Amino acid sequence: MRAGKFRDTLALAERAWTVAEEIADPVGLSAAHRLLSTSHRLVGNQPEALSHLETWQPRPSHITDTSAFNAGRVPRIGRGRVLWLLGFPDQAVEAARKADEEAASVQSPVPVCIVTIWGANVFGWIGDWDTVEERADRLIAYASKYSLAPHVAVGHGMKGAVLINRGEIEPGVEIVTGVAGEAEGGSLRTLYRRVVSGLGRRPWSERPTG
Length: 210
Hints:
Blueprint: H1 6-22, H2 26-43, H3 46-55, H4 79-85, H5 89-104, H6 109-125, H7 129-145, H8 149-165, H9 169-198
């Protein structure tokens, strides 16, 4: 996926879903639906992406793996972006807020950080820079508490992007470039670049149609 081979990822996701269904593994099905949703979104099939997002999380009674990496426990962080791409900005904002609520119930700091980061894009796209800044401050404080230095760096990068979009170009660029090494060095290179560069910038193909 990080290499940009999204159709290959989609094929693997479909295979994973088939295997999980054959062995009747609810956790495996959950993970497969999550990967299918992401893959369909990246190849441009947003209705399918939303469909898998709506069904990927199994009922709590069916989850036997309660580790932090169980896909069934990770909030549906992609829903806001998919709804935006489908042309529903108001629903996208609501989905971002809903993801925050879901993240609060996950007893693991990394998913909480990821939700806080990804949700910022939606608010940036509607020009709500006060909310983006609030999320950045919240991310920095929360990630610092758990010594997640790369996520702290992303938070500072988000604050730099806020300054840039408010017209304070020089200090904003200085912050964004100053923390890039720490964020990217901690295996968050793709996340940092997509989130920070995407704040406030809506490519033509990603603008709501309604």
